[in-house]
Hints:
The chain is of the alpha+beta class. The chain contains 7 helices and 6 strands; from the N terminus they run ββαββββαααααα. Helices cover 51% and strands 21% of the residues.
Amino acid sequence: MPILALRGLSVFPGMLLNFDVERPMSAAALNLAMNADQILFLTAQKEISKDVPFLDDIYRVGTVCRVRQLLRQPGSKTVRIMVEGLARGRLDALTMDTPSLFGEIEPMPDAPEKPTVKSEALCRRCTALFSEYAQISGNIAPESVINIMANTDAAYVADFIAQNIALRHQDKQMILEEIRPVPRLRKVNELLAREAEVLSVEQELEGKIRQQMGEVQRDNIIREQIRLLQRELGEDDDSELNDYRQKIQERKLGE
């Protein structure tokens, strides 16, 4: 099937992903898929800066996807598409590298695991952390949180959270390559806890910076007021000028 290399993105089975197709090699892979069964293999690039990736520049493990929507922008070569992740896959052999990559893909089904009390507890822990992360980040739809809160399928929970949180593409690739649902969920739990903590610290620092900027802005306003008074009253009228200065300082302290 045709292979489309992603830069800084990953798609997991059962998830939807929107992105723009611009590079000629990617457009060729998309055209091959649309002229056949709309199925293609998406995998991440190892180096985002690589403009024309080949076999050594992409990860072997990716996701078999179906193109759900395609929108060609008038007057532009950019194509906006939505894909649905169907299943994990591994690139076994490359059979064509121009005009796009084309290869043989081996399915990578999840390893069978029976639900246990520990796996259910881990699911609850992950969904609780995800809810906390969503509140801090502010860029995750409430429906996404509701959708995952009651789910106890370790494989689905792990893939859903990994798709919807900000992680380095190397971390997402590590999760994608894990075919055992519970270890996959455990990795997601560790990464999610770290990301929630990082976001919390970032917000705390941002709050302090805003407070400092507000104080600096108030000081600048006061200094400008004093300079205006100096021009209006003249430098020799010290007594009246000092009175105004004192009033301004008292007003500042009162705030």
